[in-house]
């Protein structure tokens, strides 16, 4: 694992830097899950995502996570490391039930794929535009024909 400052660190080292015990992390994960699914926080998400809002759901989530960790005694100096521990708990603690049932693990759709540098472009992947009403999706293979120039594909999500 890595500490928020980029220094190599295993799971226990990260907990130490965060000022958390495993028991405290378990409690924080369980509380975060309960709060994120609560009507009150879901209403905050809805407001944050409204067209007139100047923020988005990530701000609501970060504040909630900071409050949960502060309740476990994490101070401002250790908050960055504690946030890394909370968000990466499923990977750092594969046998911790609370980590595997956390929002981060339960709803994560990302999976390790088989693509490596030099693989042919998967032609059947559909790309969608961001315009309201949506443009017609285009096949990735149409943008990257076989034998064409090398392509660097940078992808992300828009929420």
Question: Would you mind describing this structure in some detail?
Answer:
With 159 residues, the chain is an all-alpha fold. Helix content is 46%, strand content 3%. It contains nine helices and two strands. The chain has helices spanning 11-18, 22-36, 39-48, 57-71, 79-87, 89-92, 97-100, 103-106, 140-143; strands spanning 126-127, 138-139. The chain has a two-stranded antiparallel ribbon. α1 packs across α5, α2 runs antiparallel to α4 and α4 crosses α5 (79-87). It is extended, with a radius of gyration of 20 Å. It starts with 10 loop residues before the first helix and ends in a 16-residue tail after the last helix. The model has no long low-confidence stretch (mean pLDDT 81).
Task: Give me the secondary-structure category.
Answer: mainly alpha
What summary fits the major beta sheet?
A: 2 strands, antiparallel
Roughly how much helix do the residues carry, as a percent range? 40-55%
Distance between the termini: 27 Å
**Largest beta sheet: what is the strand line-up?**
1-2
Mean pLDDT: 81
Strand content: under 5%
How many strand elements?
A: 2
The backbone outline, from C-alpha atoms, is: extended
- Radius of gyration from CA coordinates: 20 Å
Order of helices and strands: HHHHHHHHEEH
